[in-house]
Specification:
By secondary structure, the chain is α/β, with parallel strands linked by helices. It has helices spanning about 40-65, 80-90, 110-115, 140-145, 190, 195-200, 220-230, 245-255, 265, and strands spanning about 5, 10-15, 70-75, 100-105, 120-125, 155-160, 175-180, 200-205, 235. The protein has a 7-stranded parallel β-sheet with strand order 5-4-6-3-7-8-9, sandwiched between helices. The structure holds magnesium ion (MG).
């Protein structure tokens, strides 16, 4: 099957696998207008996001029906999402029943690291049937949710694929969006990746134990962050020394209990 596309003028054609042009309007070959970006591309993207948002709503409805609060954790690769989750799961163990959907393009390395803390861990590799996507979207999380026993948990972490761009654009159906930011990433990233920094309500500034060894200017970082997201909360932590984790756990406790519609209440 070739790649079907539409021209801005409404004519349509398909590129066959051999690369030949089959213009239905009878135009001569060599017409490259079909490659332009324009209203068609916008329409397709809108359709993708509409479909994602519909699926995100149904994920959220499913979570709400079970009284589960979901937190979407995003960051660059290596900022410390999994390390922070290890500490978080260890601290919550025995108090809160937790599930984790662990998103990675390949491998179970991070999912394996999260085993042994009493949490339900479900691995979601985006290379398996999802084209190696650089982010999680709502349909992927929806398929992972089928493997989570929602009746036994109150809190679900979705560890997104490490990436500062794409994960911010896809609502996966979580109730809260949190970022982990490593101070090794410099002060300017909020200005360079504003969509991500604007999409979250909390930034966990991680690897604070490295501060004496870096030229990182915390004031400048916080000014840059406030410039793109004035209302964001900031908690400084170190997954290595556990400094600041209490504040993060308090934030979680405040947000786990949100008004939830039980299935029996409305029906
Ligand atoms: Mg990870």
């Amino acid at each position: 099957m070739g790649r079907f596309h539409r021209h801005d003028d409404g004519t349509e054609h398909e590129h066959g696998s051999s690369g030949e042009h089959d213009h239905r309007s009878g135009q001569e070959h060599g017409d490259l207008s079909g490659y332009r970006t324009g209203p068609d591309r916008v329409t397709v993207l809108e359709r993708i996001f509409d479909e994602n948002d519909r699926c995100a709503r149904s994920n959220r409805d499913l979570l709400d029906a079970h009284g589960v609060v979901a937190v979407n954790m995003m960051s660059s690769p290596g900022a410390g999402k999994t390390s922070l989750l290890q500490h978080t799961l260890a601290s919550l163990s025995g108090r809160v029943h937790v599930g984790v959907i662990e998103g990675d393009i390949e491998t179970s390395i991070d999912a394996d690291r999260l085993a042994g803390y009493g949490a339900q861990v479900v691995l979601l590799n985006t290379s398996n049937g999802f084209g190696g996507e650089c982010h999680l979207d709502a349909p992927m999380v929806g398929s992972a949710l089928q493997r989570v026993d929602l009746t036994t948990i109150e809190l679900l972490f979705v560890e997104n694929v490490g990436n500062l761009v794409c994960p911010a654009e896809f609502d996966v159906g979580a109730h809260h969006r949190v970022m982990v930011y490593s101070i090794t990433e410099g002060e300017e990233k909020p200005l360079k990746y504003p969509v991500m920094f604007r999409s979250v309500e909390l930034v966990l500034v991680n690897k604070m134990d490295l501060l004496p060894h870096l030229d990182f200017d915390m004031d400048l970082f916080e000014r840059n962050l406030a410039a793109v997201n004035p209302s964001v909360a900031v908690v400084k932590v170190s997954a290595r020394t556990s400094d600041g984790l209490d504040t993060w756990l308090k934030w979680l406790e405040q947000h786990v209990h949100h008004p939830v519609s039980t299935p029996s209440a409305g029906a």
